[in-house]
Design a protein that fits this description.
Rossmann fold, seven-stranded parallel sheet, Metallo-beta-lactamase, Chain A, 416 residues, seven-stranded mixed sheet, 28% helix, binds zinc ion, alpha/beta
């Protein structure tokens, strides 16, 4: 069995690994680089034979989880190539697509992962392991062939709401593993034995911020970070606030297929449609979707009257409506995503809007990635012959943390 990291050996984002055995090939992830210009994703396609669907030896693409930097190039390859992912992940991508700009990848058919259930693709045996991450329905993948095996960590953490999944993996690891392809996002972000806040700690910080806010709380979080939406919901209940969501968030929450996740028809949840979404609904005729989520629909006049009793899952498309409808007196803005997006000038208009409206910004967030200490425990449990860095800006730091480190550059082929 041979392996080639096409992208990710020294960067975070755009992950893609090719595995070859007996002339047959599989891809692990096909992501868009984080700094890519999304108008022309095809420019970032790695040089892999058969992406046009012409090579039957390219058996399929196994996506670890529904983050753009892991699946974002799927729309640039032939739909004839089967795609594996979790079934909830597939539903989430399908639910998100209508709300996204043109190039949002289609959810092609293929294998639906089931946690711990092995399946066979050509000469490969694949076992998906559900893991804790900021994307819902994320997997690590164990690939066996020719008496050898590769364990691909995907993205994972051990401080979210599903940390028990990673505990379980550490207690009962796959064995034997020749190569562990290990993500190292946190290297360079945390040092030594430092840890990230847990999602429970995030909930406590949210409770504090919500209780001291005099008006509406705007929480800027990804609607696909389901752990975070749960934290916002729980903190809202604990502070007597209602969770207000738009149609996109309502559709994503339903697509999880998990009725313990907040839904638009829960009594503590309200649906609020911003003007630009109203236009979209009309234009595309999404009236069934709107009706389906309208059990608790409110309007901006209602929000204006109940602002101190509401938490809005904020997206910038709400700005003008909130301003026009007097919803902002005493408002607080909580930024609950990666600070890198904020620093990178992605939100210049939003920054001006907050300043103009005198809205203070608080940051409450935790990483979707394992701390170095948790990575170490994972390596110790799996006990692989080789640890190969991926999804990191600091491959050189692996040798200080793990035994058996072997660094491979992008596009280099090596034996497992
Ligand atoms: Zn991810």
């Amino acid at each position: 069995m041979r392996c080639c990291i096409h992208r990710g050996s020294d960067q975070i984002g755009g992950s893609c690994v090719e595995i070859e055995s007996n002339g047959q090939r599989l891809l692990l992830d096909l992501g868009l680089p984080l700094d890519a210009l999304v108008d022309h994703p095809e420019k970032y396609l790695p040089n892999i034979q058969g992406l046009d669907g012409s090579d039957p030896n390219l058996l399929g693409i196994l996506i670890s989880h529904p983050h753009l930097d892991h699946f974002g190039l799927l729309n640039c390859v032939s739909p004839k190539i089967p795609v594996g992912m979790g079934s909830a992940a597939r539903r989430i991508l399908a639910a998100a697509r209508p709300f996204m700009p043109g190039n949002w990848p289609d959810s092609a058919t293929g294998w639906d992962y089931q946690d711990g259930h092995k399946f066979i693709v050509g000469s490969f045996k694949i076992t998906p392991y559900l893991v804790d991450h900021s994307a819902y329905d994320s997997y690590a993948l164990w690939i066996e062939s020719e008496g050898k095996s590769v364990f691909y960590s995907g993205d994972f953490r051990r401080h979210g709401r599903k940390s028990i999944l990673v505990d379980r993996l550490i207690q009962k690891p796959p064995s034997p593993v020749n190569v562990l392809l290990l993500e190292g996002t946190s290297l360079g972000r945390l040092n030594g034995e430092q840890n990230f806040l847990t999602e429970e700690e995030i909930e406590r910080e949210l409770v504090q911020a919500f209780s001291s806010a005099k008006g509406l709380v705007l929480v800027h979080a990804s609607s696909q970070n389901i752990d975070r939406i749960v934290s916002i919901m729980r903190a809202s209940i604990r502070t007597g606030r209602k969770l207000v969501i738009d149609l996109y968030t309502a559709a994503i929450l339903e697509a999880t297929g998990n009725r313990r996740i907040p839904q638009s028809n829960w009594e503590n949840v309200a649906l609020l449609i911003p003007q630009s979404q109203r236009v979209q609904i009309k234009k595309h005729g999404w009236f069934d979707l709107l009706n389906h989520h309208s059990a608790n629909r409110i309007f901006f006049e209602d929000l204006s009257r109940q602002k101190e009793k509401s938490t809005l899952v904020f997206r910038p498309l709400f700005c003008r409506d909130l301003e026009r409808n007097d919803c902002l007196e005493g408002a607080v803005f909580i930024y609950s995503q990666w600070e890198g997006y904020w620093e990178r000038d992605s939100y210049e208009d939003l920054k001006i809007w907050l300043e103009d409206n005198n809205i203070p910004k608080i940051s409450i967030h935790t990483s979707g990635h394992a701390s170095p200490a948790d990575l170490k425990e994972m390596v110790k449990a799996i006990n692989p012959q080789k640890v190969v860095p991926i999804h990191t800006f600091f491959p050189d730091r692996y040798v200080d943390l793990f035994p058996g480190v072997e660094i491979h550059a992008d596009d280099e082929w090596w034996e497992v």
